[in-house]
Structures are given as structure tokens and as C-alpha cells.
Amino acid sequence: MALTEYFVRYLQRRDSLSAADLEKLRSISTETRSFAPGETMVSAGNDIDRSCLMLRGMAGRLHILRGNSTQTVITALHVPGDFVDLHAFVLSGIEHSVIAVGPAEAEFIDHAVLTEITENYPHLTRLLWMSTAIDAAIHRQWLVAANALRSSAHLAHLICEIYTRLAAVGAARDHRLTLPLLQRELANILGYSSIHINRAVRDLRDRGLVRWAGTDIQILDWLGLARLARFDPEYLDLERRRR
């Protein structure tokens, strides 16, 4: 199967692609796989010879802390158009796994293909580098939010970010999104108890900022939600310019 258009949209949201760039991207052969909720998409370790690109649904980067008890921590969320493990292309291995958050579909690209791109397509190489830099910027912003925001604002920030990332590739519109996370998973991601998350969801509803039913969220007041979250999308680098 050819490379997903979501990744093309991800790049075109931020830069212009030449005819040669588009031809190369659309000629890449990939393997598409579907995953059940909680299923491992990429395993931690050293034997990695391809990279995973999200096509549908959502994925989480999972770290496991071992000791007297085992604890799992989700440290990133990936949406359509995201490479979930592009950093593994230049590392000897990765210390985390990637799991499906809800039903998910992804494409896998051999590292040999990425090597050929980096050796022959300098503009696409810079854009691949850009995507890993944006991934790192999201990590930094999560740390800032975790340290600076209280539970309701922290949850609001996550909603603003995920909606903005989905909308940028055409996977969400009209301030509606699907967030396939249980409250205990949100608690894991944001670092609160399930009770705190339940209260935060109720607070956002009571303020008239969102309508939240199951996994479906409608943002009723974008400006109010973004103001509460102190959300500034600059770290997502959505400006379209030559790289």
C-alpha cells in the first residue's frame, strides 16, 4: 500500500512539497496493520528495522517501571500522520513500546527506504528531522503543563492539543474529536487519580466548555477552553514555510 495521505498533509501543513517530493512519498511501499485496543504496535528493544506511521485511531508511548511493583506510564499520544518511532531509525533501540489506544491502524516503512530518502532527498530529510523536533517539543510542553497547570486546565490543554493536531491533518473538524481514553488512562497520562480526572471532566462540562459523551468530545467554547488551558499552539510549528 502507498504511504498514507495523512503524513503528506502533516508535511504540507508546514511546508510546500515539490512534485519530486510527492512522487517519492507516494511511491513508498508500506505494510498496513490493524490493532485492537491495548495491543502492542512497536515493542521496546533493539531489533527495529522499520518505522510505524499512524493511519487511524490513536497510539500511546508506553514506559514500564519495574521494581517491587510494575507501573506503566503513557508519555506520548500519537494521531494520524504521526511517526510513532521515527527516532528509532537513528538509535540502536528504543526504551519504550507503543500500544494502540482504542482500535488503530498503522503503516510500517522499512528503514532501508528511509535511508534511501536521507541519502537522495535533502528536503524530505529535513522534514523528517522536523517531525522528530516537533515530537520533542510536544514532550517539553507536556512537562510544562504537568508542572504549571491544575487538573481541569491540564485536561483542557490535552484536549486543545489533540484537537489541533487532528485538525491539522484533516482528521477532526467543527471542534469535535474522538478521544478513545478511559478516565484511568487519562489519569495515567496526566498524573492524577481517576477521582481527580472525573472532577476535571465535570468541571469542564459545568463551565460550558465541552460536551463529553463516552469517547466523543464536542468543544463548545474554544476560546474559553484555550484560555483556561493557557494553550498556545506555537510549539506544534503549524506555520507553513520553507524548511
TrEMBL record:
Keyword Transcription found: yes
Keyword Cytoplasm among record annotations: no
GO molecular function: DNA binding; kinase activity
Protein name (database record): cAMP-binding domain of CRP or a regulatory subunit of cAMP-dependent protein kinases
Annotated HTH crp-type domain residues: 149-223
One Pfam assignment: HTH_Crp_2
Domain of life assignment: Bacteria
InterPro entries xrefs: cNMP-bd_dom, cNMP-bd_dom_sf, HTH_CRP, RmlC-like_jellyroll, WH-like_DNA-bd_sf, WH_DNA-bd_sf
Record keywords, A-Z: DNA-binding, Kinase, Transcription, Transcription regulation, Transferase
GO BP terms in the entry: regulation of DNA-templated transcription
